[in-house]
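Q: I have 437 residues here and want to know how they pack in 3D. Can you give me a structure?
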Amino acid sequence: LTKKLLENIDYNITDERVILYLSKILISIKLYNEALHILLELHTPKSIYLRAVAYNNAGEKQKSEELMTLLNTKLTTEENCFAIADEMDKFKDIRAVTILQKILKMQPDNSVYDANARFRLAEFYNSKGKYAKAADLMEDGMKNMKGFFMMTINGRNYTGDEAKERSIAKIADLRSQEKGGAEIWYKALHAMKKEENEKALTLFDEFIKNNPEYHKAYYLKSEIFLRCEESERAVKELTKAINCTVAGGTHFSQKNTYILEKSKILRESNNYDDTIETLNEAVKLNPKNEEILMMLAMTQFYAGYYKQAGELYSKCSELNPKDLYAPLWEFIALKKIKKSPEKEFAKFADTINGNKWPIPLIRYYAGTITLEQCLKSANSADKIRENEKKCETYYFIGAYLQGLGDNKKATEMFKKCIKCNIQNFREHNAAIIELAK
């Protein structure tokens, strides 16, 4: 198919961008002569480099080297050098390192290209295990703040404060490995991968002696303890990881991850009060994160703090009006504290169009469809999805009937919900709690 498409290409192209783009496609599918043909009349640094690549891949090493020598004379500006280094990276050409080093010797000093060249060189030295050199280069790059507008880490571009935060975090990682712990660290990772749990824990402890503030070590230890079903020890290690990260800035995302992991373990252990306390830390970090707020709301609900849960469900609805589950949970929470949300819920239901799931549940709560119609709406050709929908349907119908005081029918529904065995569903957990009560 590719060859048929190429037969229809007009090789008398004049647009430089099209020529360069097409030549890279031709090189990638090993049509080197065709690539050389369309590049022949172009004499820019990028076109010279691509011709060198085509000749090299075609086995004509001498011609390729001659073109690389010519290219070197053409690279007289930092911008040209950086553009060629970019092209070289796409071809995994190690000579990009030489070009990046050339940028650092050029004028002006401390330009945006200098900063980004240092970041790119840091990636190279990191891959070679030269962590101190990599950290030094990144620190030098950070001295020029303009560099953050173009910074790249592992092929992904970052800008502004996020780039700065990721750079500082990366430097901290490199400095930790620099302290003689790199070999121990990788041995620990290897043992962990092979599920040699005791060996991995011993190695991580040895690493921590020299790097007591390195949060990832505690986090990985917690994963091992979870694997060994030692949840209390996992929580202790996650607490250490959280304490090693700052409230904002460079460790924001890591701290958030650790707090959520700790919360999940605590909640699965039915330790609701400690879960709530931990999740409140996450809310302080990100007060508008709907996922965190919903997790806190569900924990408040499971713990029986229905007023607080209802307020959080309402906040989740404000943050994400497309989440149609939050209003259902808020309805149940309000009924638990003897409030009457029916009128307000009916107004909300009037704003919802269509029958996309879970809209039938909303219509049942609003009184516009019957119990039988609601149950029927869970039917699906996809039996896995049908089971999931039935799990939710049985719970929400049960909760509604419970709110009406019909505990006998509510109990039947909760039992059916649990029988669906969707253990990671909120409804499954809530049904177990209701039956226990």
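Q: Anything worth noting?
A: The first strand starts at residue 152 and ends at 153. The mean pLDDT is 88.
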